[in-house]
Amino acid sequence: MKKIILLFFLSIFTLGCNSSDDPASATDDGLATAPEAKAEYDDSNFGIYKGIFVGSSGTVYVNLNNSGNISAKLVIDGMTYNFTTSENVMEGVAISNLTFTSGESSFEFNVSATGEEPLIENIVIDGHPDSYVQIFKEYSFAQIKCYLGSFSGDDSGVFNLATTADGYALGLVVPNGETSAIYLDGTITGTSLSGTFEGGNFSGTLNGNTISGTWQNSVPESGTWLGTRKL
């Protein structure tokens, strides 16, 4: 697998699920069954952002005043990092380099005035160098789900995906022994997923809280991948 550079338009940075005034229900394992984002923030920079992390493996959740506060949570390899910021943001105004911190760890959050093109950069996570994040903005009508997993076959490593209820997917892959991420871009029709990365493609099937499929590249190499929903 090779590297591709993509950014996507919906978002998140993993965070303990703060919900709306009418909280989204959750399964026994704590996974939300409906969007947490409030409809009043669908066209705003405020709301909920969710995504995936590599440089190890994890999820990201960012809450920008969806429930009256600004906070973020990153879960990496099962360990939770709660982030806060001392900076203020205004609704309807683009956010640039909003700094979140948790001890020695930090990252900067950027998003347009309407919630498009969210981006997390300048990521410094203690003990996790070479970090990458892909995020979506969650909408009141389109829930974000994040899956963590691995791929195997002629190559192997971390394979993480985030999906939207309206048919989009993005992902990050890091082969074992490498530090650079491969960016995945895909679409979903029903329970079927297909997508591309630089020099290859992947496909799969969603089945409840699991997702799995196959990959191949131009080397040629091929194999399978599997993920479990964690956010």
User: Which spans of ≥5 residues are poorly predicted at pLDDT below 50?
Assistant: 1-23
Please outline the major beta sheet.
Answer: 8 strands, antiparallel, barrel
Q: What's the overall average pLDDT, rounded?
A: 90
As a percent range, the share of strand residues is over 45%
Radius of gyration: 17 Å
Share of residues in helices: under 10%
Structural class label: mainly beta
Helical segment count? 0
Q: Helix and strand string, N-terminal first?
A: EEEEEEEEEEEEEEEE
What is the β-strand count? 16
Strand order of the biggest β-sheet? 9-10-11-12-13-14-15-16
Q: How far do the termini sit from each other?
A: 26 Å
**Global morphology:** globular
Quaternary form: single chain
What does this structure look like?
The chain is mainly beta. 0% of the residues lie in helices and 52% in strands. The protein contains no helices and 16 strands. The protein has strands at residues 47-54, 57-64, 70-76, 79-83, 95-102, 105-111, 119-124, 132-138, 144-153, 157-164, 168-175, 182-189, 192-197, 200-207, 210-217, 222-229. The chain has an eight-stranded antiparallel β-barrel. The chain has a five-stranded antiparallel beta sheet with strand order 4-3-2-1-8, with no helix packed on it. A hairpin with a 5-residue loop joins strand 2 and strand 3. It is globular, with a radius of gyration of 17 Å. Residues 1-23 have low confidence and may be disordered.
